[in-house]
Design goal:
about 200 residues; mainly alpha; about 70% helix
C-alpha cells in the first residue's frame, strides 16, 4: 500500500492528484486546496465547456444588475441548459444560480453563490468516490483507518478559503482573464516552497 489506492482510482487524473495529496501527510492543506481547485477547473473545462460557461456569464455579468429581473435571468439560464450538452456540473451551476436569484441576489453575486455551491457539490461527490474506493481497495482495519484519514483530509480541504472561494477564479475565466488552472508540481527533489 506504499503507493496508495489513489493510483487505481477510476477517476480523472486531476482527482487522482487530489486523492494522492489527501493520502500523503507530506502535503500541506494549501497544496491540497491547489489540487482540488485544479480538479474543479478541469471539470469546468470538460463538463461545462467554454461556450456554456461564457453564456452563463453573459446572462449575469454583462448585464446591469438592476436591468435583469430574476425571472428573466432564470429563464435565460434554463435556455442555456437546453442548448448545451447536459452534464451534472452544468445543471448544478444553473440550478444553484437560479436559487440564488430567487433568494434576491442579482448579477455577479448570484453567479458567485451558484458557482460556489455547485463546486462544493462537485467536490463532495468526488470526495465520496475517493473514500468508497479506499474502503473497497483495502478492506482491512488499517485500510479503514487510512480511508478515514483521507476523508478527513478531503473534508478539511473542502473547508479552505481557496476552495470555498472557487467562484472568483471561475468568474475571472468567464471574463476572459488569465487564471492558472493547472496544478503546479515540484520539478525535482530539492524543490521547496516558492517564496514570493
Amino acid at each position: 500500500m506504499s503507493d496508495g489506492p489513489y493510483r487505481s482510482l477510476d477517476m480523472r487524473k486531476a482527482w487522482r492528484d487530489v486523492a494522492e495529496r489527501a493520502h500523503k501527510d507530506a502535503f500541506t492543506l494549501e497544496e491540497r486546496a491547489d489540487a482540488m481547485c485544479a480538479a474543479l477547473h478541469d471539470d469546468l473545462k470538460r463538463d461545462v465547456g467554454k461556450g456554456a460557461l461564457k453564456a452563463v456569464g453573459a446572462v449575469l455579468l454583462d448585464q446591469e444588475q438592476g436591468n435583469l429581473l430574476s425571472d428573466q435571468a432564470s429563464a435565460e439560464l434554463e435556455a442555456i441548459r437546453g442548448d448545451s450538452r447536459s452534464t451534472g456540473f452544468l445543471d448544478s451551476i444553473i440550478e444553484h444560480t437560479q436559487v440564488a436569484l430567487h433568494e434576491g441576489k442579482t448579477g455577479e453575486e448570484a453567479l458567485q453563490d451558484g458557482l460556489n455551491r455547485a463546486a462544493i457539490d462537485q467536490a463532495r461527490a468526488n470526495n465520496r468516490a475517493v473514500e468508497e474506493h479506499y474502503y473497497r481497495d483495502t478492506p482491512t482495519a488499517k485500510g479503514a483507518e487510512k480511508a478515514i484519514s483521507v476523508r478527513q483530509n478531503l473534508d478539511a480541504t473542502l473547508q479552505t478559503e481557496r476552495v470555498r472561494g472557487f467562484s472568483a477564479e471561475a468568474i475571472q475565466l468567464m471574463r476572459g482573464e488569465a487564471v492558472s488552472t493547472k496544478l503546479q508540481k515540484d520539478s525535482d527533489i530539492d524543490a521547496g516552497p516558492v517564496i514570493a
